[in-house]
Design brief:
This protein is an alpha+beta fold. It contains 15 helices and six strands. Strand 4 and strand 5 form a beta hairpin. The longest helix is centred in the middle third of the chain and has 37 residues.
């Protein structure tokens, strides 16, 4: 009994030593793991990010041109089955839809289901070719153009032996909503990433300089920060939408929207960086670095900002859903991205009519992915915010 007690005491002592000697990242991860909602949100977020990155492989068709199905416009979702009244099959299948018109329908096209013609689902099929990890940027002016070729493939996760399959149905143009949704996730996340990166760099530079130097430099930079914070986003984008020429490519519009979102999204993080540096710039470790001849840039970059790293990461994660929401809202009201670009905002434009609400409810499937993406970011951000204070438990 005595040996067991001493063994438990030794184990507790080791745990305490590991806790107080752990690095900042280890402490944050240890607290984050205990937050079940944050872990679930992180798992969902990783799945959505990977589904967006690998969208060309996971989806059966190109979402714009190759994904069109003129024979199945505004078609309902096709759910694979294994059994029906004609018998069962070990391979999943969907039915064939046929369009006909006659005097009985006033010569209008009418779609009907032919249950005798099955289309069997196949995996790892060859289909429309696509470039994976390809970046071909065509901005105004040749000096801004650049291209990364990536590699070409025609393999897709699934398809059917004949015809097409539409798991989420099709829209009025016959485009596959399943393919559009996954490509839209990738586009919205890309816009958010570029916007957050620009906001992050500006916030660190402006907030760092303002908080470190103080005085008249701080006053001028805070005036600029307050001016940017008071700029109304919607009127700004209405003016910019009128400014953007119709000849701009989809890539140019994409980068323009991302840059503008970044330029108006930095003040909040800059304020927090400034506040932290104002309280930390007179600490002993900063004075020691200055006495050793360190430059202001070195002190900010190597000493002050690393002490604020965990909170900066939290702010970045929390900023992502706001960037995605901004892009979605702007595209939804017609001021952001437009067809043929696939983004969540562009797809949500199709759900505003009463006809869609009454007859084509599958148009709302991308809304589910949009809500899930935002909630995943929120849960992860909240979990990181709680874990950013590694010694919070010791204060209780």
């Amino acid at each position: 009994m005595t040996d067991m007690t001493s063994s438990n005491e030794a184990l507790d002592q080791k745990r305490k030593e590991a806790y107080f000697t752990a690095g900042q990242g280890q402490l944050i991860w240890a607290r984050f793991k205990r937050n079940k909602s944050a872990m679930a949100g992180g798992f969902v977020l990783i799945l959505l990010i990977l589904s967006g990155i690998f969208a060309p492989f996971l989806t059966p068709y190109n979402p714009t041109i190759a994904g069109r199905n003129a024979e199945y416009q505004n078609g309902a979702p096709q759910i694979p089955k294994f059994c029906d009244e004609n018998g069962c099959s070990w391979r999943p299948f969907v039915y064939t839809y046929e369009r006909t018109r006659s005097a009985a329908t006033n010569f209008r096209w009418v779609s009907s289901v032919n249950k005798d013609k099955r289309r069997y689902v196949q995996f790892f099929v060859s289909g429309d070719s696509y470039r994976f990890l390809n970046f071909d940027i065509n901005l105004p002016g040749e000096a801004l153009d650049f291209s990364i070729p990536g590699f070409t493939s025609d393999k897709h996760l699934f398809g059917v032996d004949t015809g097409q399959i539409h798991l989420f149905g099709t829209d009025a143009g016959g485009k596959d909503i399943f393919s559009r949704t996954f490509h839209a996730i990738n586009t919205s996340l890309a816009v958010g990433t570029i916007g957050v990166f620009i906001a992050f760099v500006l916030a660190l530079i402006i907030g760092g300089v303002s908080g470190y130097y103080g005085g008249w430099i701080d006053s001028i930079l805070q005036m600029i920060t307050d001016a940017v914070r008071t700029v109304p986003a919607i009127p700004l984008f209405m003016a910019l939408a009128a400014f953007i020429p119709d000849t701009w490519s989809a890539e140019a519009r994409f980068f323009f929207i991302s840059i503008i979102l970044g330029f108006i999204g930095w003040p909040t993080l800059a304020r927090r960086v400034r506040t932290h540096l104002l309280t930390e710039r007179n600490q002993e470790y900063v004075l020691a670095a200055q006495l050793c001849g360190a430059t202001p840039g070195h002190v900010i970059r190597k000493h002050l900002l690393p002490s604020f790293t965990s909170y900066i990461i939290v702010d970045l994660v929390i900023s992502f859903p706001y960037m995605v929401l901004s892009e979605t809202a702007l595209s939804f009201i017609g001021l952001g991205l437009k067809d043929p670009v696939n983004s969540l905002g562009v797809m949500l434009q199709n759900v505003t009519s009463a006809d869609v609400l009454l007859n084509y409810q599958w148009y709302f499937i991308p809304v589910i992915f949009f809500i899930t993406l935002v909630l995943a970011f929120v849960f992860v951000g909240d979990g990181l915010r709680d874990a950013a204070d590694p010694y919070g438990e010791s204060k209780r």
